[in-house]
Design a protein that fits this description.
Distance between the termini: 56 Å
Largest sheet: 8 strands, mixed
Number of strands: 10
Radius of gyration: 28 Å
Number of domains: 3
Structural class: alpha/beta
Number of helices: 30
């Protein structure tokens, strides 16, 4: 239910609000799910691509609106996610803020706690993942923490549903902490000077003054809305003269003084004992991030995914769905029913013709793509739940830095191997607009989806292994080259790479099942309508004789530049509508003996780099806007032909496959 008007109504809702706040990867979404059940609304925060999830909860016969905010490392924003969370606190007054904490990383959490206390919000601290902390020999004294900070402290193990009822009870009577700490005399002097110039808001004037002194530029729009220009320039002068008193950045000085307070609190409440003996999980955890052994482990994981998704999903399940369920039962029944019930050849063809909604769109979306994406979703959920994905991101961080990205970009890129359409949606996890545009471009250009990979690997199976290696080498080179150039051209900054490495743990079957189920639900809701739309476009294009016209127009380019037979033109046109359909057309040409090894390599490199499929194109329009989507298509189309033409000349010149 992506519904902006709904979101606006809820923002104005008179129900008291509870905010869930915490660092990334602390189990906030699990806590949110356990507290609300299924009835939630996911919508973008106004003016951003950041998703905020809202749901309802009843505590002691009173109804609350609960808001799951994006994960943050600080409330002085460095990313769009952090800005959204800070803005929610600034714009909406909560009855309670639950800070969800990874108990193993108590110091990182306390840094955020101090900022929340400074804001003067009613706070409940939820020490989550208590079991993992204990298994590492980390114990936090809840009572001591409660006494020091003067707020409710509750322990939970969300994945085992432990402590949730105690957490709900504590929310009914949240307390504003009476704990206070001071910065050095200089900073304190400027805090009080700035405080005097600020209006009242949902968070304390002190916390806003500290944000201003830390050089928080994202507050500018709030200041412009709430203060006169004179007062703003006065505040900026005060900030500048405070900064002049230090040889290093004032934001760093403030952070260091906060960290000193954090160390003091942690010293009182944290005790460490000898953790359990080195277990298998610990050994695997060390291998996965090892500079030498991490890579063979990654290859092993990718091999397992290929076997599971490629062999089981793209092979056995697709064959079963396509040949038996659809081929023997559903499509023949549909044809019989349509022929009997619906009059007129036009409507019949629209439903069951070569470009029919049932025979093409649904067969493709459900019989071919769904088994592949479902198996990929299962594999991805297992990697996510086991804690391997963040490790993969940190290992590949250096490679991604050459493209102006960081290791977080690994996640959408890996997802792209399942389905580029869905991967484009997950670029939302990246911190800046620049990073989201670069990754969307690279997905559209060089990452083949699982449906296409299946067909491509089938073709290479009949060629020497060198052909596959050339294909892989060209794709990786193109992605690195385009990423590098895009990072230089596209304006904006790259964010620092901060990613908490959770321990390797055994995936919970219930978690994997729920995540897979919700992703399949997403696929059916978001992607299937796009396939139907694509099929309708094809149907109309065929009726208006546009397809044969396009084939004639494009044929000279395909023949003279790429050195391919004229029949290959149809595959490239089909490739825009359905990525694997294009590859399947080339597969048929290879079977007929119309392509030699060199032509197979050139055609597969070109079709992999070719315009993204229509579903992916619509997703780019939805996420990045029409202008950006058209600009990307305008670049990708000629560029793929250029690379293919260049490769054709190089292979002929080197006589590799002759």
């Amino acid at each position: 239910m992506h519904d902006h008007s709904h979101k606006q109504q809820e923002a104005r809702s008179d129900k008291p609000k509870i905010f869930l706040i915490g660092n990334p990867n602390v189990g906030k979404s699990v806590i949110f799910g356990l507290m609300t059940g299924r009835y939630v609304v996911v919508s973008n925060y106004p003016g951003t691509t950041v998703e905020v999830t809202r749901g309802e909860i009843e505590i002691q016969k009173e109804k609350f609106l609960i808001v799951d905010t994006p994960g943050v490392n600080s409330l002085i924003p460095m990313s769009e996610d952090e800005k959204v969370t800070r803005d929610i606190l600034l714009d909406e007054k909560p009855r309670a803020v639950i800070q969800v904490i990874d108990t193993k990383n108590i110091k990182r959490a306390l840094f955020l706690t101090l900022q929340l206390i400074e804001m003067g919000v009613p706070l409940v601290m939820d020490l989550n993942m208590k079991d993992e902390a204990l298994s590492r020999g980390i114990d936090i004294n809840d009572n001591k923490l409660n006494n020091i900070l003067g707020v409710e402290v509750v322990s939970t193990v969300a994945v085992q549903k432990k402590g949730i009822s105690a957490l709900k009870r504590s929310v009914a009577y949240p307390r504003v902490s009476g704990y206070s700490f001071s910065y050095d005399a200089n900073i304190e002097e400027y805090i009080s000077k700035i405080e005097n110039l600020l209006p009242s808001s949902n968070i304390s004037k002190r916390s806003i003054a500290v944000m201003i002194l830390s050089g928080d530029k994202t507050l500018k729009s709030w200041l412009l809305k709430n203060l006169s220009a004179d007062k703003i320039s006065l505040i900026e002068d005060l900030r500048d003269s405070a900064a002049e008193k230090y040889s290093i950045q004032l934001s760093y000085v403030i952070s260091q003084q906060r960290l000193k307070v954090v160390d003091g609190i942690a010293g009182e409440v944290l005790t460490k004992t000898d953790p359990e003996k080195q277990g298998v999980a610990r050994v695997i955890g060390e291998i996965t991030t090892h500079p030498v052994w991490g890579l063979p482990f990654l290859v092993f994981i990718l091999f397992l995914i290929y076997e599971f998704v490629g062999k089981l999903g793209a092979g056995i399940l697709v064959d079963y769905f396509e040949d038996i369920i659809f081929g023997k039962y559903l499509n023949p029944w549909a044809i019989k029913i349509v022929m009997a019930v619906i009059p007129g050849q036009f409507l019949q063809e629209l439903l069951i013709g070569p470009y029919g909604i049932i025979t093409m769109a649904l067969t493709y979306a459900i019989a071919i793509i769904l088994p592949i994406t479902a198996t990929f979703f299962i594999a991805f959920s297992i990697m996510e739940d086991s804690g391997y994905l963040p490790r993969l991101a940190s290992m590949l961080n250096k490679m991604f830095q050459t493209m102006g990205l960081n290791g977080k970009a690994v996640l959408p890129m890996v997802l792209g191997l399942g389905c580029d359409t869905m991967a484009t949606l997950t670029t939302r996890i990246l911190d800046t607009k620049k990073e989201r545009i670069i990754v969307t471009l690279l997905l559209a250009l060089g990452v083949p989806c699982s449906a296409q990979i299946g067909v491509i690997l089938g073709m290479f199976g009949k060629q020497p292994v060198g052909a596959l290696l050339v294909w892989v080498f060209v794709l990786i080179s193109v992605i690195l080259f385009v990423g590098f150039i895009a990072a230089k051209i596209i304006p904006g900054r790259r964010t620092d790479f901060i990613l908490e490495l959770p321990p390797i743990r055994r995936p919970q079957l219930s978690n994997v099942f729920m995540k897979t189920l919700s992703r399949i639900e997403w696929y059916l809701r978001e992607a299937v309508p796009l396939f139907i739309l694509g099929t309708l476009i094809l149907f109309v294009a065929n009726k208006l004789k546009i397809i044969p016209f396009l084939q004639d127009a494009a044929s000279p380019v395909i023949v003279s530049m790429l050195g391919l037979p004229a029949q290959a033109t149809e595959s490239f046109i089909m490739g825009f509508l359905r990525r694997d359909y294009g590859a399947a057309g080339l597969f048929a040409l290879q079977e007929q003996g119309l392509l030699n090894t060199e032509q197979v390599v050139v055609s597969l490199v070109t079709i992999t780099l070719f315009i993204p499929c229509i579903a992916n194109f619509f997703m780019i329009v939805k996420e990045r806007g029409v202008k950006t989507a058209l600009a990307m298509a305008g670049f990708v189309f000629p560029f793929s032909i250029l690379v293919g033409g260049l490769l054709h000349r190089v292979l002929l010149w080197m006589k590799i496959f002759n």
